[in-house]
Amino acid sequence: MADVLQGTRQLNGTCVSSVDMELFLHYSLIPSLFIILVLSFLQRREHCKQRDDTSHLLGNRFGIIIPLDFVGTFSNRWSYGIAFGATANKVMFLFSEGYQPLHIPQWAQAFVLLIGGTEVGLSHFPFFACLSSEFRLVSSILGFSYSLIWFAVTILYIIQCPHGQLLVTVIMKAVHGPRRMLGETKKSWFQTRVYEWDPCFQFPSRMIGTTVLAFICLYLFIVIEFCMFMYVRDELDVFEGELENYIASMNQTGTLTPVILQVKELMNVSKGVWLVTILPASLTCVSYLFHILACYRKHMKRLWAGNKHFLPLKFHHPSSSKSVVAIARYSGWQIAYILWGYLIIHVVQSLCGLMIMYSLVLPVVHNQGLEMLQGLGIGTLTISIVLGLMILQVWIATSFFLQPKMSMADKQKPLALNNRKAFHNFNYFLFFYNVLLGLGACLSRLLISCILGTWLIARIDRTIMQNGYEGADMGFSAWIGMLYVDHYHTNPVLVSFCNILITGHRERRLQQAIKYWCLNQSAGPRVSARSRTRWLLLQTLVNNPKLVMLRKSRPGHSSREFTQILLMGSES
């Protein structure tokens, strides 16, 4: 443990290594461009038109390759997540503006960050391109070789500088994993009480990759913050020693001695509270990442069902151009929101911890427990009386100023006034009291808004703006735009309908080219329409096991028995 603490104190030290990671990043562009050219040469262009220039000499070679389909990729998702994880180190340096390949004036730093981000993206482009390429053998060899180079250089750097730059580099899966079989399984306690799995819903690779990268970046951010805390704590210990020497030199009779003792107490309490609140702040952000995935599934299902009531009214018909830009912004903004949200939540929780320490714990330590209990009792009694008077107003209004129910089945009385003269006197005398009560209500509104706003700052799926001002929340706007793009491009009904149209078009073209009467006269095996229908029905039920419970059953047979009969008939 001492070695670990000693390593955290070497933040401002220099490490001599034979590997310069920034220089290696620059040189890694050479094999990256080579891999991109090879994959582009193998990729054929679908629409190649002859033109007058020399581009026709290339034929249909050198097609455009994509690193990742951010909309419609549902296979090999965890491999893409690991590939995103390999970029976590450079993402953290870009987040802290620590990687700047050029040195230009301050006003042009945005262009420097754009160039640095482009270079980092180009150096990691082969990780994703080799996974999404259709040429499995070539892409596997190139991707594994490129990943192995990065892995070897990273291991060499970590061995030589174990307390230096934090790197996370992982060798990706070069081959596609087998798809798991879908089937009904017994739900566990976690599935029934916390989160219910849906085997028919698949998160896109963008969501999986973003979540994995957010986890790794959050871990790196917490480690860096902890190292900075250890460094600041050591500096405060040195400063505290100087204060003790000053008190000793003044024989504890100086005029500043009480102030110095309070400062020492504040530093000790702050260090303890900051260290303790690391765990709840990190758990809060980790739970947010899982909750965002659950909200994505819930929101997508609602959009697929045509339900938009959970969205603000102005987001029912978002701009198409803004939605396209939103899906490009979402992944980066989600990671930034989680990191900044963790820091803000940590600060707020630390302030709450200081309030608890100074209001409840320290008075007991200083033998002022009775005074603390007296003040706490008075405050609790005051708040209880205020709340009791508010509840009493509601009870009086319900009992004396509303007409009785028109039916015993009604849940509440109708909104019809009764005893109007007494009601007007009731309002007049409570007017002056409610003016004073409104001041406390206003302050409580401000306090609750601040607490909820800072607590939910990392939630990009929920706006913290007031009703009517949701458009000012750029993160929430990016979330809504991303949902609409996925809704329009991955809607299962729309995709199935388009698939039926494409299949029907191909069948019509096949009917025009082939004479089916020749096929009917052939000696090959013939398949009846009933068997073909049963086979398609069986395939649908195997891929969607929940549909078995929703099927109509034959008279005298349950749905499961009829499914077993169908299976036996298909096997025969």
TrEMBL record:
It is a multi-pass membrane protein. One of its GO terms (cellular component) is plasma membrane. One of its GO terms (molecular function) is retinol transmembrane transporter activity. Keywords: Cell membrane, Membrane, Receptor, Transmembrane, Transmembrane helix, Transport. The chain crosses the membrane at residues 24-42, 110-129, 135-159, 212-232, 273-296, 337-361, 381-402, 430-457. Signal peptide: none annotated. This is Stimulated by retinoic acid gene 6 protein-like. It comes from Puma concolor. The gene is LOC112852934.
